[in-house]
Amino acid sequence: MIGIGAALPEITLKDDTGADVELTKLERPFVLWFFPKADTPGCTSEGTQFTELYDAFKQRGVEIVGVSRDSVESQRAFKEKFGFPFRLLADTESKLSNAFGVLVERERDGQKTIGIARTTFLIDADGKIARVWPNVDVAGHAQDVLSAV
Hints:
This protein has helices spanning 41-52, 54-59, 72-82, 95-100, 141-148; strands spanning 12-15, 20-22, 30-34, 63-68, 87-90, 103-108, 111-116, 119-123, 129-133. By secondary structure, it is α+β, with helices and mostly antiparallel strands. It has a single domain (12-148), classed as Glutaredoxin, CATH 3.40.30.10. The strands form two sheets. It has a seven-stranded mixed β-sheet with strand order 2-1-5-4-3-8-9. It has a two-stranded antiparallel ribbon with strand order 6-7. The longest helix is centred in the first third of the chain and has 12 residues, at 41-52.
């Protein structure tokens, strides 16, 4: 997993509108939260928590950006359904997930799959990793992140 002090990788992804987003050009500082799958209970809860605290993050000059391996269309639908005020990135080729080291192998009902381990990163004004929350427990997570910024 990418560590504290590491620079942002130069990766471009599509956001929930289909626009190209260069990670290194995003407004900083920002919170980058990786979630396993759009419109699932844990991811919805986490997104809702970030939405509830969005104004407090903005008052501190911090943007929120979510990312999963879902399609642009899935990200758009997820964002619209729950009214998320922040952009969601579609990492359909796992470029960003691989660069940040958040992909893990899981086994369920005897089937092995690769998926995102729920992980959050705080990116500082210089574009470096300032804090990492691995294997996030959703309950109260957005408040924990806000307390750290």
